[in-house]
């Protein structure tokens, strides 16, 4: 079942590192589907939890919309570099002919291979190839699936997920240990989309200066507001939870 060529819709595709695909087509263009696609992969592949870390690195989106200026149908199609090679498959499932997909805006640290690699032992199924191409329907989810049960954190209607920056001094065993601890906590406690950007202050001193980083490691919550930061002790779970959920003004 594919999209009608004349239909206005938004399509979202989520790939695995092994090349499997789960996607959805939303004619109403109202829903945020990334969470459901992750949950769908969890059900299909028997994962212990939804693989939220695949977002946005392994995603592609397409939007067929009416240009208000000339009332013509326009198509916007973007894919992250890791999945750009699947353009033929994307065009097949969304029936977009030989459409040329654009590279989604990204930063080299956004989808750090070292960060993604920390999940391989926990989710080996995602690195295996199952020749899976599935259009997501709500029926794929187990009847007991309720997103609210996965997260002890409050949800804000204004928030579009969390944006975090981790400033480190080079990629070493200490950095890897911090990443493993941080990702485990985020996956277990944060049932919302999030972006964790790892920034090496040696490679990007200008970014460190812009964020007023005086020491590493430093974890900064950029969104939702207020901006908060933890300097050192990144493996202190209580402090990280404080950074995520506290709404008090930072002093």
From TrEMBL:
Gene3D superfamilies: Glutaredoxin (3.40.30.10)
PANTHER family from the UniProt entry: CIRCADIAN CLOCK PROTEIN KAIB2 (PTHR41709:SF2), KAIB-LIKE PROTEIN 1 (PTHR41709)
Gene Ontology annotations of biological process type: rhythmic process
Domain named KaiB: residues: 165-246
The protein's name in its UniProt record: Circadian clock protein KaiB
Entry-linked InterPro entries: KaiB-like, KaiB_domain, Thioredoxin-like_sf
Species: Aerosakkonema funiforme FACHB-1375
